Amino acid sequence: MNIPDNLKYTSDHEWVRIEDGNIAYVGITDFAQGELGDIVYIDIDSEGETLDQEAVFGSVEAVKTVSDLYMPLSGTILEFNSLLEDAADLVNTDPYGKGWMVKIELSDTSQIADLMDAAAYEESVGA
User: Fold this and answer.
1) Which residues are within 8 A (CB) of 36 and not within 5 positions of it... i.e. 6 or more apart?
2) How far out from the chain centre does Cα 85 lie?
């Protein structure tokens, strides 16, 4: 299982990559995509919305199940990864790269301290 050290993580299995202080990219972890199985569709229609931490921003549909996606930090969704419209399986094959889901502008950077580092996330999933 791949858990990069340069990212932050949530107990809901989202990862966060902070850039430029208040911009973040969000996706689901390698562990999450492995548990879900083959991902066939990403439903995110919250682009442009400002959402609170823990709010649902979309869902991911796999062959066997549908799972909600939760905002790891409060902010405005600036962009949905349009590559996922035609290739949702990028979340399976490259969850930390081309499989990112949304880019957000953070409204409260102090919330970053609430996220887990790689070691804490690894321990939480029993890796």
Assistant:
1) 28, 60, 62, 64, 65, 67
2) 16
Give the HSE-up count for residue 114: Cα atoms under 13 Å, Cβ half-sphere.
Answer: 13
User: Is the pLDDT assigned to residue 127 strictly greater than 80?
Assistant: no
Phi then psi for residue 40, to 5 deg, are -115, -20
The structural domains of the chain, ordered by start, are 8-111 (2.40.50.100)
* Confidence class for position 59, pLDDT limits 50, 70, 90: very high
Burial zone of 85 (CB within 10 Å; 0-12 exposed, 13-18 middle, 19+ buried): exposed
Q: Are 118 and 7 in contact (CB under 8 A)?
A: yes
Q: DSSP E strands: which ranges in the chain?
A: 8-9, 14-19, 23-28, 39-43, 50-51, 56-62, 66-70, 75-80, 102-106
Note the residue count of the chain.
Answer: 127
Q: Is residue 118 very low, low, confident or very high in pLDDT (cuts 50, 70, 90)?
A: very high
CA atoms within 13 A on the CB side of 31: 17
